[in-house]
Amino acid sequence: HLPLMFPVDQQLDVKSIAAQGIHPPLPKLFFMGLAKLAMLVGIEGQTAAFRFSLLFIGLFSFLINAISAARHFTGRRATLAVGLVAFFFLSPLMMTRLMVESITMPLVTLMSLLLVQYWRRGWRVDLSLAAVVWVVTFAFRPQVLSVAPAFLLAVVLSRRYKDLLWLGLSVAVAVSLLGAIDLALGRTFFQSYWDYVVFNLRFSGTHGVMPFYVFILALLAATLPPTFISRYRGFRWKEEYQELLPSLWILAFFVGVHSLIGHKEERFMVPILGVFLVCLVPLADHLIFVEKSRWRMIYFAALNGTLLLLTSFNIVQNNIVGLAVHLESHREINELM
User: Fold this and answer.
1) Residue 337 pLDDT class (50, 70, 90 cuts)
2) Tens digits of per-residue pLDDT, 71-129?
């Protein structure tokens, strides 16, 4: 939120700000980079910088999510996947927030695509790219470490045991580059990420504690019941989801680990939203084109459309936006700062 709080100029001490606190430096460097880019193209003022940042993040999140979700499938299912990503009622809220989760979501969806492609065709380049994207995603949201077993399952269950070495090397190279950022900021190797993980392990159970089933219920509610509640006659579960197993593993491990942690916030599920929609596509395809359940389509379209209008015109994080607008309208405060 730095672009919103203070006027950004050439004197911004990027190194000292990125090294502050327990949070990893890469997200701070990313958002400060947006602020610098806004300045370079002639955008001035906190509100204008905010709009520029939202535009960039929204386009980045939507394009990567939509393309990655579509490439999980072919034909009409690819179109259906893009439709879900584009018009799902939560998309405007989740794709336009100046938070690390909004950047993490498209990366997780891309990681899922690369791992699915490796599962299908066994190309090591897909595995390596998936591992690199996973490490970059970890730099923004360390909790994504929870999906590590999905990589091991993809290699072991496909019986490509030699690829474990390839996976390890890819992760090691990516982690080394992250550690180099800490060294450049005057810290020890990988210190910021270690500090962040230790802090969360120590204090995640002391505030915002909720029951383990909260996230599961939240995802079920997001499907707008009873839309997807059906007997699915003739639906071949094994065949339909065989190629999407890595996506299912990512979803299961991410939600499962987060459910076991006491501290819970709705934003914690934002990174997995794209993969969640990918996993819904075969079910939606069956209900629409096989069962041809008209009432489900009308119900989902009406309710989702109504909610989409509300979320599209809702100001996300209005407390921060309001502060930015207030600061910009009172120049004397900026001068005092």
Assistant:
1) low
2) 999 999 999 999 999 999 999 888 887 678 888 999 999 999 999 999 999 999 999 99
Beta strands in the chain (DSSP E): none
Angstrom CA distances, 139 to 30, 132, 150, stand at: 11, 11, 18
Q: Which of 70, 62, 61, 148 is nearest to 101 (CA)?
A: 61
Report d(CA 134, CA 148) in Å as an integer: 9
Tokens coding 260: 């076991």
Give helix 25-40 / helix 163-184 axis angle, nearest 10°: 70
235 pLDDT more than 70: yes
pLDDT, tens digit (0-9, with 9 covering 90-100), for 128-162: 999 999 999 998 888 899 999 999 999 999 999 99
Single-letter residue type at 136: V
How far lies 65's CA from each of 26, 127, 128, 249, 271, in Å? Answer: 21, 19, 20, 18, 11
Token pair belonging to 279: 């996993």
Token look-up 């979320």 returns 311
User: Which amino acid, residue 188?
Assistant: T
C-alpha–C-alpha distance, residues 153 and 254, integer Å = 14
Q: Can you say whether residue 80 is alpha, beta or left, with left for phi > 0 and alpha for psi between -120 and 50 degrees?
A: alpha
Distance CA 248, CA 173 (A): 27
**What are residue 209's DSSP bridge partners?**
263
Residue matched to tokens 């001490």: 13
Q: With the C-alpha atoms ordered 114, 228, 94, 138, is the resulting torsion angle positive or negative? A: negative
Between CA 59 and CA 70 the distance in angstroms is 16
